[in-house]
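A reminder from the course coordinator: this example appears on the midterm review sheet, so study it carefully.

Given structure:
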């Protein structure tokens, strides 16, 4: 029975170097992905904060038809008061 030829030592060295390069690349990609996730979470929090602020502004503003009605009533009252004087 014949044994397969033993691998060339330079091939093993190159494979180990390739493995190290791949591990380094995966670590770099992992770091980049973690940074992207963190930035996405910060953006989500900023959008939630902005949404809350816009909703508060919308609740606190007077709707235009209400302002128009109030101005019309005041104008009518002043006109009637001037006619009756």
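Designed residues:
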């Amino acid at each position: 029975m014949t044994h397969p030829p033993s691998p060339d030592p330079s091939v093993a060295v190159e494979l180990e170097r390739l493995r190290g390069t791949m591990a380094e690349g995966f670590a770099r990609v992992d770091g980049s992905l973690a940074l992207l996730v963190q930035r996405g979470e910060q953006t989500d929090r900023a959008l939630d904060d902005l949404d809350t602020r816009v909703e508060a502004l919308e609740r606190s503003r007077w709707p235009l038809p209400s302002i128009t009605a109030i101005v019309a009533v005041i104008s009518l009252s002043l006109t009637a008061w001037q006619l009756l004087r």
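The radius of gyration is 37 Å. Helices lie at 9-60, 64-84.
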